[in-house]
Amino acid sequence: MPRDLIKLVCTSCGEENYHTTKNKKTHPDKVELEKYCSRERKYTLHKEKK
Fold first, then answer.
1. CA dihedral 31, 34, 36, 41 (to 10 degrees)
2. Distance from C-alpha of 11 to C-alpha of 18, rounded to nearest angstrom
């Protein structure tokens, strides 16, 4: 199964807010998304953590 579980970490506070899956075969690069951070109470950039 090519889909792997990943964690999304807030770049400003470092909190692991979201868990999701991605297909590593079609998207080998790291995921970067604008998601809501509950600690900062605003939308911030979240990057994939290994």
1. 130
2. 13
Q: pLDDT, tens digit, for every residue of 27-42? A: 999 999 999 999 999 9
Assigned CATH topology for domain 3-49? Rubrerythrin, domain 2 (2.20.28)
User: How far apart are the C-alpha atoms of 27 and 25, rounded to whole Å?
Assistant: 6
- Position of tokens 């998601």? 35
pTM: 0.84
For the chain, give every domain's residue range: 3-49
- For residue 48, report the phi and psi dihedrals to the nearest 5 degrees: -70, 135
Task: List the one residue out of 14, 5, 7 whose CA is nearest residue 48.
Answer: 7
Residue 16 structure tokens = 């692991």
